[in-house]
Amino acid sequence: MKAVLVGFMGSGKTTIGRLLAENLKTSHIDLDQVIVEHVGKSINDIFEEEGEQSFRQLEHRLLQQQLTQDGILSTGGGTPIMPANQYLLRQTNTPVILLEASAQTVVQRVLRDHSRPLVNKLSITQLKGLKQKRDALYRECADLVIKTDQLTPQEIIARILPKIITD
Ligand SMILES: Nc1ncnc2c1ncn2[C@@H]1O[C@H](COP(=O)(O)OP(=O)(O)OP(=O)(O)O)[C@@H](O)[C@H]1O
Ligand SMILES: O=C(O)C1=C[C@@H](O)[C@@H](O)[C@H](O)C1
Ligand SMILES: [Mg+2]
Asked: Which residues take part in binding substrate (predicted)?
């Protein structure tokens, strides 16, 4: 991989990953999308019919696989939470970039979109609490942190591009 993007739901991993890949003329892989295609079900249906645990196991297996590929990888919002994934993200030579945004910003960005099971299930207060609980784990695996609240996607990729080694 040329870069891995991590961050809470709504931090912009999918949006920025796609743009970054376009800019570098490389492929964009979205781990959530890889899981959806692998199982043949939406994230909501996987959570509901097979349980979060099963989703997490698959997420781990597919993360390990995707890290060996070329391109830009957007992870899922919960990917760095599993210790085995934290290990993979820390030991990879690929730059791991954390897209940071305040709890208020991420909640605003995801609230109207019902494709995320945790957003459907949790109250705003619980979502903010979950973010706070996870924030340290995102930071632990990151080589670069970008505060995105006041930045446009173009401004964000301009900050990431110098960190990416292309060959
Ligand atoms: N810098 C930004 N400024 C304004 N809106 C943004 C920015 N980044 C992302 N968004 C918007 O926020 C929403 C969520 O973004 P996105 O789907 O990329 O998040 P994500 O990190 O991939 O979330 P998930 O972890 O659930 O996959 C989208 O509607 C996107 O257009
Ligand atoms: O933050 C999370 O735990 C999640 C984020 C999404 O990207 C999906 O991976 C799924 O909805 C779980
Ligand atoms: Mg995404």
From this structure: 32, 56, 77, 134
